[in-house]
């Protein structure tokens, strides 16, 4: 029998409880750094070492973090469902929690690539630092494998298809403000169960139920209910 399909769409809020700073919000990284300096092609061309240092620090932060109860519960869904995690996060906490199918729309901080718009070489560096002078096999400077502002997200077409085919959709820890990723929920045509988990009061998207609370509390409860069906 074919397993039901679940799409789990996650943002920075799911990793906050693991100690990873958000980018937005009153205390987010964008209140500490100018976006154009560290997360834009202009900043990269102006001062690449500054950009590399910013992401070196992000790697240190991720290395110290551990998956929380929400990450672990999402991975448990695979015992009964066909689960794809589509995440706006660049950390590797879903991987370390045990999820096997993960699409990183905005890249991965544990990877770097050659400084080319396409046909680039991709390298998994874990939590190591990268500095000026470290080059790919073609002699080009390595840059973070991150989607910067003014760049296109990865896996959008595949994600649209997954949303359209999902039987259940779970949205966790995203403000749904970052486009075009936030528009993916508009393609949830056939899902019977649609939940968004967020600790703040909100008007949920059409046909979504809002479960208010922290991800590490609410996600395991919802997962347990789905696993008991």
Automatic annotation (TrEMBL):
Residues 1-229 form the Deacetylase sirtuin-type domain. InterPro entries: DHS-like_NAD/FAD-binding_dom (IPR029035), NAD-dep_sirtuin_deacylases (IPR050134), Sirtuin (IPR003000), Sirtuin_cat_small_dom_sf (IPR026591), Ssirtuin_cat_dom (IPR026590). Keywords: NAD, Transferase. Pfam families: SIR2. Gene3D superfamilies: SIR2/SIRT2 'Small Domain (3.30.1600.10), TPP-binding domain (3.40.50.1220). It comes from the Bacteria. This is protein acetyllysine N-acetyltransferase.
